[in-house]
Amino acid sequence: MSSITNKQVLDFILYEKEEWANSALMKFKTTEVLPEIFPGQFVQVKIENSPDTYLRRPLSVNFTDRENSCLWLLVQKIGPGTRKLAGLALNSKVNMILPLGKSFTLPEPAKDSFQQQIMLIGGGIGTAPLLFLSKSLHERGYSPVFLLGGRSAADILQIDQFRLYGKVYVTTQDGSMGERGLVTEHSILKEMQPDRMYCCGPKPMMQAVASLARAKNCWCEVSLENLMACGFGACLCCVEKTTQGHVCTCTEGPVFNINQLLW
Amino acid sequence: MSSITNKQVLDFILYEKEEWANSALMKFKTTEVLPEIFPGQFVQVKIENSPDTYLRRPLSVNFTDRENSCLWLLVQKIGPGTRKLAGLALNSKVNMILPLGKSFTLPEPAKDSFQQQIMLIGGGIGTAPLLFLSKSLHERGYSPVFLLGGRSAADILQIDQFRLYGKVYVTTQDGSMGERGLVTEHSILKEMQPDRMYCCGPKPMMQAVASLARAKNCWCEVSLENLMACGFGACLCCVEKTTQGHVCTCTEGPVFNINQLLW
Amino acid sequence: MVDLSVQLKALRLKNPVMTASGTFGYGEEYLDFMDVSRIGGIIVKGTTIRPREGNDYPRMAETASGMLNAVGLQNKGVHYFVKHIYPRICDFNTNVLVNVSGSTVDDYVQAAEIIQELDKIPGIELNVSCPNVKEGGMAFGVSPRALSLVVKEVRAVYKKHLMLKLSPNVTDITELAKIAEDQGADSLSLINTLLGMAIDAENRRPKLSTVTGGLSGPCIKPVALRMVWQTYKAVKIPVIGIGGISNTADAIEFMLAGASAIQVGTANFIDPGVSVSIAEGITDYCRRHGFKSAKELTGSLIID
Amino acid sequence: MVDLSVQLKALRLKNPVMTASGTFGYGEEYLDFMDVSRIGGIIVKGTTIRPREGNDYPRMAETASGMLNAVGLQNKGVHYFVKHIYPRICDFNTNVLVNVSGSTVDDYVQAAEIIQELDKIPGIELNVSCPNVKEGGMAFGVSPRALSLVVKEVRAVYKKHLMLKLSPNVTDITELAKIAEDQGADSLSLINTLLGMAIDAENRRPKLSTVTGGLSGPCIKPVALRMVWQTYKAVKIPVIGIGGISNTADAIEFMLAGASAIQVGTANFIDPGVSVSIAEGITDYCRRHGFKSAKELTGSLIID
Ligand SMILES: Cc1cc2nc3c(=O)[nH]c(=O)nc-3n(C[C@H](O)[C@H](O)[C@H](O)COP(=O)(O)OP(=O)(O)OC[C@H]3O[C@@H](n4cnc5c(N)ncnc54)[C@H](O)[C@@H]3O)c2cc1C
Ligand SMILES: Cc1cc2nc3c(=O)[nH]c(=O)nc-3n(C[C@H](O)[C@H](O)[C@H](O)COP(=O)(O)OP(=O)(O)OC[C@H]3O[C@@H](n4cnc5c(N)ncnc54)[C@H](O)[C@@H]3O)c2cc1C
Ligand SMILES: Cc1cc2nc3c(=O)[nH]c(=O)nc-3n(C[C@H](O)[C@H](O)[C@H](O)COP(=O)(O)O)c2cc1C
Ligand SMILES: Cc1cc2nc3c(=O)[nH]c(=O)nc-3n(C[C@H](O)[C@H](O)[C@H](O)COP(=O)(O)O)c2cc1C
Ligand code: FES
Ligand code: FES
C-alpha cells in the first residue's frame, strides 16, 4: 500500500518515555494534525545538539494515536544519534519528516468463511513497526501469531502490547526467555503453515525468514533498514538490488515482498 | 604576575545560575582541589552538545572560592558557544582547562602612609575579570574606584558586588543608568588622577582608555580578548603585535601593560 | 524592494538560489515540502546518454559535518528523461537545468543535443567532476586537455546556457576555469564533491562499496569558498557557488566571494525547504545592509 | 602483550602516535597535561633558517568540525631553536623531530645541516606544504619539479630520518609521493592543511588577515584518509597519517588505510592529553581484534 499522504516536516514534543539499558519507547505529541500514517512507514528524525550526527535518522513508526496527535518510536541505542534521542528529557522538541516510505500490504478484511493465518516475525528492534501493523491487522479482524527473537530477554520489548493482538512466541539466544536459539529455529515454524508472513529484523534473520517463506511457499513481506541520507527519494543512497534493478528503499520500500528481492 | 600553578583539565558541575536576556552568571563547583587562580586569568571551556562550536571558548574567571572549590564565570551570549553555555541546566557537567594566562599585576599591600588611587574600568562583559581583581585589591587594603560602561542599564552587571569593594560610577549610551555616553567620557575622569588603571572591555574602548592613561601618565593594564584556538601557547593564533613583536595573548597575556602594546 | 534577480549571461534567475544536482532529484521529490517556483532554478539529477545502475550499496557514509556518497550517476538515461520525466516537470515555474555526464566526449555531445530539443530546459550543467564513476566523470574535470575538448565539442552543438561544473580535486582550479571559459562555457559552477574515504574501524572495511566517494556538506565549505574566490578573480563569466551551503549566511558568503548565484546541495536532505528560506533570507540581508539588489552582493567582499 | 612499537625505516617509535607540527608547540606547552614519554614522537613547530614574525592577526577562524589557521610559520629561527629550545627539550624521552620550512631550496638545506648536528633530534619533517606563506611553502609541495629538487638537495646533506610532509592541495598526491620516494625521503607524512577561506557575512570581510588559510580538524579526515590510502598503494616507504585524528578509532582507520604511524594535530587544542589516550586505545583495539602488534594494522583494510 502506497502512501497517499503528503510528506511534512513537523515538530513534536517528547511526551512520555520508557527507557531501558539498550532502548527506549518514546511517545511524541504534535500540536498540528498528525497526517495519516500506515504501518511500516517511517519518519526521519533530526537529532539536535549532536555534533556527531549530521544527517537525520530513520525510525519506524511504532504506533500512532491520530485522535491525540501522538506517535510512538521504539529506539535501540546503537550509536550517537539513537543514544542522544533516547536520552532526551521529557518536553524536548523533536523535528521529524513524515510519513515516509511504503507500508506493509494489509490483507482484505477477514471473513469468517476464510481466515488467513498471519505470522509476524520480529528480531530485536525489528519488532518496532510490527506493533502498529498488529493493530491494523486486528482492526481488519485478524489475530496474528507473533514470533519475537532477541539475544536475551531484555531484547524482547512490548510483549504485553503484542499479546493484546495475538499469541506470542519467543526465542532468545541465551535461553533467558522462550525457546533457546534463533527466531528461525522456533518449533512453531515447523507446526504452522501461515498464509502470510511479515518480518523485520537484522538482514541475516530476514534472509533466513525469506528462505523459510519460499520453502513454505508463503507470501512474505520484509522491511529493510538500508542506510539513508534523505529518506524521500532524492539522494539514491538507500538502494537495494531488486528484480527491477537498484530501487530506493525509502520510496519503493522499506517494505518489500520477498519476490522483489534477490536474496 | 605570572601563573605558578600547573594547568589542569577539570570537570565542574554547574551549581548556581543567574540568567539575564544577554548574559548569565554561572557558579561552578568541582570535586577536585581548585588550583590557585589569580585575577585576570582565564579558563578554556568545552561546549558540549554543540554542533556549531568545535573549539573551546575562553572565559575570564569572574570570582573564585577556593575553600569550596567554586569558580564563577560571567558569560555574555553573543554566539552559539556562549548561548549554549549560558543555557545549561543546573548540574550539567562542564569541562575546563585552567588556570590560563597571566594575571593582572597587583600593587604592594597598601600602607597608610601612601595610598595609591586605583581605578578599574570595565565595558560590557569586560567587567568579568574585574570583580575577582577587586577582591584581591581589597585584600591588599585598596578601595578602588569603578567605572562601568554599557549600552544600557541591562549591561551593567554585578554592580552590588562591585560596591562591596569601592565606589562605582556608571555610564550608559542610552542614559538609562549613570551618565549618558561612553565610559571614557565620564566626568570622574576629569576630576581623578589615578595611580593605576586596570581596564577590560571592547578593543576600541580599551584603546581610548590607553590614550587617556598615557595622557594622564598613569600606569595601566588592559586585558585583551584575541581569538584563541588552544589557550595555552601551542597554536600561535592569538597573537598581538607588541614592542616585542608578535606575542601570544594566551600565555604572555591576556593582561598587558599598555607600554607593551602598539596602540 | 530588493531586486533578487540575477542574470547568468542570457539566463535570468528570479533569485540566486538553485538546488544542486543529485541532491534534489527531479524536483518532484520536494513538492510536498516547498514551492519550487520560489527559487531561481533546479539542477536535476546527473543524466547520461545510456541508463546507469550506479554503484553497489552501501553508497553513503556520514562524516564530521558532512557525508560521502558513491551513487555513481544512477539514472535511466536521457531518452527516458525526455519521454517520462520532462513532461512531468516542464511546467515548474523556475529554471530547470539538466546535469549531463558521460564517459566519452561523444556521450556528452549526444546528450546535449537531445536536451537542446526540450523547450523548457534553458540550459545544461556539464558534470566533468563526478568522482564516483570509473571511466570519464572526474577525469574530464582534472585534465586540462580533456576538459578543453569536452567543453569545445559540446559548445559546438549546444546553443543554450552552458554551465560547467568544476572539480575541486585539482592543484589549481583557475587553470581549468580559464580553459572552460575560453572554450565557450557560459558560467562555472563549483565545487563538486571532494574525493574522500571512510572506514569502519570495527569491521575493518571501507564504508562505501567503491572505497572512495564524494564528500559534501558544511565540512567542505571553506574549500569551496576559497575556490569560488580564486575563480571569480580569474574569469569573466559568472560563477555559481556550491559547497556546504545550509543557510542564508552561507549563501551570502559565497556571493561576497564572487558567486553570482549559489546551489544548495546536501542541506536539502536535512531541511527540505531550506532553499526557499535562503532566498527569503537574502532579501532580508540585502535590506539590512543597504543593497538594492542581490547582484550587488557578487564579489563585494571588503579586503582592507 | 601487544607490541605497539613501529619502525619508520631506521627510526623506531615506541608507539605509532606522534603529534603534528604547529599544534604541539615544542612539547613544553603540554607537560602539564601529559607525559610526553608515552607517545611515539613529537614534531615541533615549523622552523625556518631565519626568524619569522608570521602573519597579521586574525590568524584563526572556526569552521564546521574544524578550523582555519594562517599562522604563517612564526618562529624564532633555527639558530634560536638550537641555542635556547633544544637544550630544554632534548631530554624528552621520545623522538623529537623538527619540522623544517623555507622559501628557497637553500633555506631547507641550511636548516637541515644545522639540525643534523643536534644529537637528540633523530629526524626532520620537511614541510613543503604550508599554505600560509607567500613565497615557497606550498609551492614546493604542489610542483613536481620543485619538490624533486628540494628533497634531493636536502637528502644530499641530511643523513638521519627524512620525513616529507605532503600537501593535499594537488590533483594527484601519488605523483608527488613517488617523486619524494625516488629522491630519497625515508617516509611521507600527510596531509597538511587544505587551503580554505572563511568570511564574516555581517561585516563582509574575510575572517583571516591573509584571506585564505589552512583547514584542519575532523572535517578533513575523509580527504586525508583517501590520500593516505592512495599513497600507501603507490610507494614502498612508510606513510604517516595526519588529518582530523581525534580518537582511537580515527587513528586505527588511518593505520588500516596504510599508515605506519599517525600524527594528532588540532585535536590537541581541545583535548591536550588526547595523544596518550590514543596510544592506550590502540593497545586495547589490537587486543580486541587479535593483533599482536600495532605494525600489523598497517594496510590491513579488508576489501571484499
Ligand atoms: C526505514 C528504517 C526504519 C528503522 N526503524 C528503526 C526503529 O524503529 N528503531 C530503531 O532503533 N532503529 C531503526 N532503524 C535503524 C536506525 O535508523 C539506526 O539504528 C540509526 O540510524 C543509527 O544511528 P546512530 O547515530 O545511533 O548510529 P550510527 O553511528 O549511525 O550507526 C551505528 C552503527 O550502526 C550501523 N547502522 C546505522 N544505521 C543503520 C541501518 N539503518 N541499518 C543497519 N545498520 C545501521 C552503522 O553502520 C554503525 O555501524 C531503522 C532504519 C531504517 C532505514
Ligand atoms: C582571555 C579571554 C577572556 C574572555 N572572557 C570573557 C568573559 O569573561 N565573558 C564573556 O562573555 N566573554 C569573554 N571572552 C569572549 C568570549 O571568549 C567570546 O565571546 C566567545 O568565545 C564567543 O563564542 P560564541 O560561540 O558564543 O560566539 P562566536 O560565534 O565564536 O562569535 C560570535 C561573534 O563574536 C566574535 N568573537 C568571538 N570571540 C571573540 C573574542 N574573543 N573577541 C572578540 N570577538 C569575538 C566572533 O568573531 C563573532 O563575530 C573572553 C575572551 C578571551 C580571549
Ligand atoms: C548524494 C549526492 C549525489 C550527487 N550527484 C551529483 C550528480 O549527479 N551530478 C553532479 O554534478 N553533482 C552531484 N553531486 C554533487 C552536488 O551537486 C554538490 O556539488 C556537492 O554535493 C557539494 O555541495 P553540498 O556540500 O551543498 O552538497 C551529488 C551530491 C550528493 C551528496
Ligand atoms: C595552528 C596550526 C599550525 C600549524 N603549523 C604547521 C607547521 O608549522 N608546519 C606543518 O608542517 N604543519 C603545520 N600545521 C598542520 C598540521 O601539522 C597538520 O598537518 C594539519 O593540521 C592536519 O591535521 P589535523 O587535522 O589533525 O590538525 C599546522 C596546523 C595548525 C592547526
Ligand atoms: S534515502 Fe535518499 S533516496 Fe532513499
Ligand atoms: S590560543 Fe593558541 S597560542 Fe594562544
Task: Describe this structure as you would to a colleague.
The complex is a heterotetramer, with 2 copies of chain A (263 residues) and 2 copies of chain C (304 residues). By secondary structure, chain A is of the alpha/beta class. Chain A has 2 domains: 8-100, Translation factors (Elongation Factor Tu (Ef-tu), domain 3); 118-223, Rossmann fold (3-Layer(aba) Sandwich), CATH 3.40.50. Chain A contains 5 helices and 16 strands. Chain A has a 7-stranded antiparallel sheet. In chain A, strand 14 and strand 15 form a beta hairpin. The longest helix of chain A is centred in the last third of the chain and has 14 residues, at 203-216. The model of chain A has no long low-confidence stretch (mean pLDDT 94). Chain C has one domain (6-297): Alpha-Beta Barrel (TIM Barrel). Helix content of chain C is 31%, strand content 21%. In chain C, the strands form 4 sheets. Chain C has an 8-stranded parallel barrel, surrounded by 6 helices. Chain C has a 4-stranded antiparallel sheet with strand order 5-6-14-11, with no helix packed on it. Chains in contact: A-B, A-C, B-D, C-D. The interface between B and D is medium-sized, with 29 and 35 residues. Residues 42, 53, 57-60, 74-76, 78-82, 125, 128, 225-228, 254 of chain A line the site of one flavin-adenine dinucleotide.
